[in-house]
Structure formats: C-alpha cells, structure tokens
Target: Nitroreductase
Amino acid sequence: MELPEMNKYDKVAKTDYEIYPLLSQRYSPRVFKDKKITAEELHQLFEAVRWSASSNNIQPWRFILTKKGSKAFNNVVDCLSEFNQKWVKNAPVLVLCGYKKTVDKVKENFHALHDLGLCLGNMTIQAQSMDIALHHMAGLDWQKAHEVFKVPDDFHIATALAIGYYGGDITALPEDLQKQELAKRERKPQSEFVFKDSWK
Ligand SMILES: Cc1cc2nc3c(=O)[nH]c(=O)nc-3n(C[C@H](O)[C@H](O)[C@H](O)COP(=O)(O)O)c2cc1C
Model:
C-alpha cells in the first residue's frame, strides 16, 4: 500500500452540525513536515496563550520551550512515556506545560489546570490558522520533569506538547502508529454529555 504524505485536510471531522473550519480541521498528528517553526511564529502561538481568559486573571500557565537539536529537547524526550518516544522526535518543538498551584503561596488555585487547558485550546486555534499542529501529551513522567528541569515546588508540570507543521512522511512512524494516523476519528454524540435542565 502506498502511504500518503499527510496534510491538514486529511482528518477533517465529520461533524453533526456546522462548526468553524479551524476546529473541524484540527487533529493531533504524530508526523510533521520537515520544516522549522520560527521564533516569530512561536511568539504568535504564545501571544494567543497570553490573551486567554483565566480565573481572576491569574494567568497560572508556565511553559518550558525546547527546539530539536538541543539538550533540553532531548531531556523532554527522556521524560516522556515509551509510547510517546516512538513518534515525538518527528516534531521540531517540544514544550512542557505547567501551572502555578497556589495564589499568594497559600490558597490553592483550584482553576489553574482549567486555565492551562483553556489557553492551550486558544493556542490550538492560532496554530491551526498558521497550518501548525499541536499534539498534547499526558504520557509524561512529571516527577522526572520536575527534577530534570528544576521546577519550583509551587508549580506542576501537567503535560507536554509537540508542535510542528502539518504534513510529513507517515513512514517515519512505526507500523502500528501508521494505522492510527490513518484511522477514522470517533466522538461521543452530544446526548452523552449535554444534559438539559438536570443531570441526565
Ligand atoms: C490532555 C491530553 C493528553 C494527551 N496525551 C496523549 C499522549 O500522551 N500521547 C498521544 O499520543 N496522544 C495524546 N493525546 C492526544 C489524544 O489522544 C487525542 O487528542 C484524541 O485521541 C483525539 O484525537 P484528535 O486530537 O486527533 O481529535 C492527548 C490529548 C490531550 C488533550
């Protein structure tokens, strides 16, 4: 079977209702085009983060940005799960994503993880408008990441993020992941998660 070069229209969601194209075109690839992301483009992505909403405007998100070829990039790879290590070096940029756990060092900021997710959602859409894909990863040894990157106690590394241009040669992936890359996308129907007027 001849395998295709991926592009951003390969996995457009078959939505039940019309949604904004940047949302239906977004997906989480495991191969990326062999093209660097410039410093300016990275600033654009983090500017979308910067202007995100957050509880009390605390802006609890923090990131460690690394580029392929650096020691720090390899250190992020070492902190990832075996599964993620199978594909993640295809990305030109890896980021550790964390949040500040408290307000004024004493009161827990219960909404910090919410705000991290929200700002990354905004980054996703900014990236999509630039043909750039994000792939979030929970498969990460966060304790190791804290140790290796000397993360202060008041912060928690929640996820890692691969960033790269859509595209790339799917044969760069091991066979099982090639299948996943081409698999049909599935979602629950709205009726399973939107309850009208009361719980179920
Ligand atoms: C918080 C979070 C953690 C994830 N962790 C991983 C991961 O460790 N490895 C991976 O390959 N994909 C990971 N994913 C990607 C999901 O598997 C993917 O978003 C989901 O299957 C839906 O596919 P789509 O993003 O292409 O629509 C993660 C996504 C999110 C939002």
In short: The radius of gyration is 18 Å. Residues 27-28, 84, 136-139, 159, 185 surround flavin mononucleotide (CB under 6 Å).
